[in-house]
Amino acid sequence: MTSPSGGSDDGSDAQPRRLVCACCGTSADALTDGLPLTWTYSVEDGARRHYCEICSRENLRSIEGRLDSDWW
Questions:
Q1: What's the pLDDT at 25?
Q2: Model pTM score
Q3: Bridge partners, residue 14, by sequence
Q4: 21's torsion region: left (phi>0), alpha (psi -120 to 50) or beta?
Q5: Residue 61 needs a FRET pair 20 to 30 A away by CA distance; which of 13, 29, 52, 53 works?
Q6: How far apart (Å, rounded) are the C-alpha atoms in residues 40 and 48?
Q7: Angle at 44 between CA 39 and CA 65, to 5 degrees
Q8: Cα 34 from chain centroid (whole Å)
Q9: Which residues, at least 6 apart from 42, have a Cβ–Cβ distance to it below 8 Å?
């Protein structure tokens, strides 16, 4: 297995990237190895969509409603 050129496997050189909420447009910085702790994401029609804490909380029932019964 190979690593991308110029990077290490331990994430020590992780650069921040800008995330934008797919619902309200709020933005936040995230490291390449994860989201801010209060954000969620989903894969819809093959595209990854990120949601801020406020939108995640406001739409929690809709998010849970899409889960298979094995998750609850």
A1: 92
A2: 0.60
A3: none
A4: beta
A5: 29
A6: 10
A7: 75
A8: 7
A9: 48, 49, 51, 63, 66
Nearest one of 31, 22, 30, 29 to 54, comparing CA atoms: 22
Provide the CB-side half-sphere exposure for 44 (13 A, CA): 10
Amino acid 41 reads Y
State the 10-residue block means of pLDDT for the chain, 72 residues long.
Answer: 50 71 88 75 86 90 76 62
pLDDT of residue 1: 47
